[in-house]
Amino acid sequence: SDISWNEAIAMRNKYKTLQPLKVEFDNPNNPGTKTIQTLEAFKISASQLLAIINNNKNGGGYNADNVVFYLGAKDPEPGYTIPSYNIIAVGMRNNALMIPITEADKADATKSSVYDKADPCPPFCPNNNQ
Question: What is the DSSP string of 67-110?
Fold first, then answer.
């Protein structure tokens, strides 16, 4: 989902204060209980990556040369004990992040192509365990 640059910085700072990554999710084999496992990966939306690279709102008509993936975290949702971890995807061109310039625009998710939509694995793992 779209997030502001300020939200991305807050999640990056939160991540830096935490220990190795675990994920907590509803146990599909025992409804009403939670499962805690080591975070293995993230599944990222290809369409959002293409938007960062080819249609960046802060690109000035230019494509991103690279995509930087920052690690971030949010406080646990109600009923959970472990923070949720995020991958924050940001375009980069000529060694500069493609983010809004003004402070007002940095706080507005609609003014940038910064995304935190990455589903954690587990539980959103591919069907085949390779």
Answer: EEEEEEEEPPPTT--SPEEEEEEEEEETTEE---SSHHHHT-GG
Pair of tokens at residue 3: 């997030």
Residues 57-86 have pLDDT tens digits of 998 889 999 999 998 888 998 999 988 888
Q: How far apart are CA 68 and CA 90, in angstroms?
A: 5
Q: What is the separation, in whole angstroms, between the first and last Cα of the chain?
A: 28
Separation between Cα atoms, residue 76 and residue 12, nearest integer Å: 15
Pairing, β 41-44 against β 66-74 = unpaired
Copy the structure tokens of residue 22: 């675990």
CA distance 99 to 74: 21
Residue 99 has phi, psi (to 5 degrees) of -125, 165
Which helix (H) or strand (E) is 64 found in, with range?
none
- pTM (two decimals): 0.72
Q: How far apart are CA 52 and CA 64, in angstroms?
A: 7
Q: What average pLDDT does the segment 106-119 reach?
A: 87
